[in-house]
Amino acid sequence: MRFALFLALAHLRRRRLQTGLALLGVGVGVAVLLTALSLTNGFVSGLVQATLKAYPHLVLFSLSEELPPFPGRDLSEVEAYAPFAATKALLTRPAEGARGPGVDFATLVGLGEGGEALYPDLGLRLEPGGIYLGSALQQSLGAFVGDRLYAMSATQERVELRVLGAFRTGNYLLDSAYAFVDLKTVERLSGIRAQGYQVRLKDPWRAKEIGVALAGTRFFPQAWQDTQRTLLEQLSLQKRVLGILIFLIVAVAALGVANLLVFKVVEKTPEIALLRAMGASRLTVGMVFALEGVFLGIGGVLLGNLLGYLLCLYLSLRPVDLPGELYFLTHLPVEMRLSDFLLVSGASLVATFLSALLPLFRALRVQPGVVLR
């Protein structure tokens, strides 16, 4: 074993340029993959945060006609809660002066006491007869703060509202279709009483678990992961596809390692035959090239982790700006995760080790008698 280790290190030191290029090839592939995954993580987190600016972490739908008391008053995981009711309505703005009328459909979310605390990023100050519009919905209606709007329900009920303000989450689906009013406005408009509670949690990713704990027999829990399942699945698929495509860079680098080791086997064939003739076993000869593949794989992965970490750190300190009018993010976020580093490192090592099998088997097939003759 010590003899094989000595020969493997000697081979790598003798061809410094080839060894360095092989390490750099694996390292760059690993670094690019880690950076791409970290950027994808940041994008997903940014989209989720934008969505949750105007979307409840957890909804508890009441299973009885009368709304029961909120069951999680003393739960430390709950930051805020409020009774709610939601309905679809046609919003119209009458023509005023040189401005023509505005018409659009919207989902009106009526919030009871404590509703403003559910969405602290929106700065809601709800009052009877007032409405907060999504930014895209406000633009569609051509409405300004203080304008009069009329909301009409499917039952032909009509309520006059005054625009109190607008909010922008960056998620166009929310900004173009949602508006917030007080709970009594929804009751007057549609006759719907409080349907349950909207809940804000310290950790929104625990919404399913906490929803089950709070529901009991009086509520039906609905976590945001359930209503946004399609979005989360699409983002997850996007990350997996991106990871597979960029992993091909690592695979190409691993083939470069295999090519280097095969070249060494061909170059060292006379030496391999001489070692075999002098009593070295097939296992010892094979271990030389196996150890070279291990060193190149581990060295390349360590280099890639270092380069990837430094590149992600640079992008987090000096983020790439994005045009705010096109994206919901003003800069490209980075979110490094230990699990990604471990997964990429493991997959890259496996790819490199597998690529080293070809030169290993080639070295084992060298026949000393044939070569020396």
Automatic annotation (TrEMBL):
<feature type="domain" description="ABC3 transporter permease C-terminal">
    <location>
        <begin position="244"/>
        <end position="368"/>
    </location>
</feature>
<feature type="transmembrane region" description="Helical">
    <location>
        <begin position="241"/>
        <end position="263"/>
    </location>
</feature>
<keyword id="KW-0812">Transmembrane</keyword>
<feature type="domain" description="MacB-like periplasmic core">
    <location>
        <begin position="19"/>
        <end position="210"/>
    </location>
</feature>
<dbReference type="Pfam" id="PF02687">
    <property type="entry name" value="FtsX"/>
</dbReference>
<protein>
    <submittedName>
        <fullName>ABC transporter permease</fullName>
    </submittedName>
</protein>
<comment type="similarity">
    <text>Belongs to the ABC-4 integral membrane protein family. LolC/E subfamily.</text>
</comment>
<dbReference type="GO" id="GO:0044874">
    <property type="term" value="P:lipoprotein localization to outer membrane"/>
</dbReference>
<feature type="transmembrane region" description="Helical">
    <location>
        <begin position="284"/>
        <end position="317"/>
    </location>
</feature>
<keyword id="KW-1133">Transmembrane helix</keyword>
<keyword id="KW-0472">Membrane</keyword>
<feature type="transmembrane region" description="Helical">
    <location>
        <begin position="341"/>
        <end position="364"/>
    </location>
</feature>
<dbReference type="GO" id="GO:0098797">
    <property type="term" value="C:plasma membrane protein complex"/>
</dbReference>
<dbReference type="InterPro" id="IPR003838">
    <property type="entry name" value="ABC3_permease_C"/>
</dbReference>
<feature type="transmembrane region" description="Helical">
    <location>
        <begin position="21"/>
        <end position="44"/>
    </location>
</feature>
<dbReference type="InterPro" id="IPR051447">
    <property type="entry name" value="Lipoprotein-release_system"/>
</dbReference>
<dbReference type="Pfam" id="PF12704">
    <property type="entry name" value="MacB_PCD"/>
</dbReference>
<dbReference type="InterPro" id="IPR025857">
    <property type="entry name" value="MacB_PCD"/>
</dbReference>
<keyword id="KW-1003">Cell membrane</keyword>
